[in-house]
Specification:
The protein is α/β, with parallel strands linked by helices. The chain is about 35% helix and about 25% strand. It is built from six helices and nine strands. Strand 2 (about 30-40), helix 2 (about 45-50) and strand 3 form a beta-alpha-beta unit. Helix 1 crosses helix 6. The protein is globular, with a radius of gyration of 17 Å. It starts with a strand and ends with a strand. The model has no long low-confidence stretch (mean pLDDT about 95). The chain binds 5-O-phosphono-beta-D-ribofuranosylamine. 5-O-phosphono-beta-D-ribofuranosylamine binds near residues 14, 15, 91 and 177.
């Protein structure tokens, strides 16, 4: 088997996507090693999930820094300590500076709960319902300097049901997120993905 893919996961919240990655690694379906989990929120539940799995945890509270640049510098230093192959944003709720994004060009991915380019930013489920969409879903993409705008790697759509609420829709999208994200990370572990001239190339 290839060397495991070293990843650092960035979170701000509950970390259910992080949990799905931890579980797939434990089940040996994802050939990765989670070197560290970094959160900008001190009491993010995802940190507990990481501790339970004996993964290094780091808190970098953005309130402790005078500027975005200082926060991002600290984040870069902490990430580089682990020298990861891939940086995985999993519910990380901070906008990153262009300098940060360019520093990790082609090495950072994000999962977003909408069918991009629809509904960048927040409240995606609510916006899909308000627009009367028949389909909704998730997108996994490389991170670029444009918010939720980087090259797409994978999308998964689900049907919006007549009686869906924001909560029921979010829940069903999340279930799909939990299988899609580890799958894409495994593609990186298998070296099947490249970003060439801003185009995602996926080998079969
Ligand atoms: C997910 O819906 C993800 O798509 C979005 O933030 C949410 C994180 O959920 N970026 P969790 O913390 O992984 O449970």
């Amino acid at each position: 088997m290839d060397k495991p893919l070293d990843i650092v996961v960035l979170i701000s919240g509950g970390g259910s996507n992080l949990q799905s990655i931890i579980d797939q690694v434990a089940a040996k379906k994802l050939n990765a090693r989670i070197c560290a989990v970094i959160s900008n929120i001190a009491d993010a539940y995802g940190l507990q999930r990481a501790k339970d799995a004996h993964i290094d945890t780091i808190i970098i509270n953005h309130h402790d820094y005078n500027s975005r640049a200082e926060f991002d510098d600290q984040l870069i230093q902490k990430i580089e300590y682990y020298n990861p192959d891939l940086i995985v944003l999993a519910g990380f709720m901070r906008i990153l500076s262009d300098e940060f994004v360019n520093h990790f060009h082609a090495k950072m991915i994000n999962i977003h709960p909408s069918l991009l380019p629809k509904y960048r930013g927040l409240h995606t489920h609510k916006r899909a319902l308000e627009s009367g969409d028949k389909e909704h879903g998730l997108s996994i993409h490389y991170v670029s300097t444009e918010l939720d705008g980087g090259p797409l790697i994978l999308q998964k759509s689900i049907a919006v049901l007549a009686d869906d609420t924001e909560e029921t829709l979010a829940k069903r999208v999340l279930v799909e997120e939990h299988s899609a994200y580890p799958k894409v990370i495994q593609w990186f572990a298998e070296k099947r993905i490249q970003l060439i001239d801003n185009q995602v190339i996926l080998d079969n």
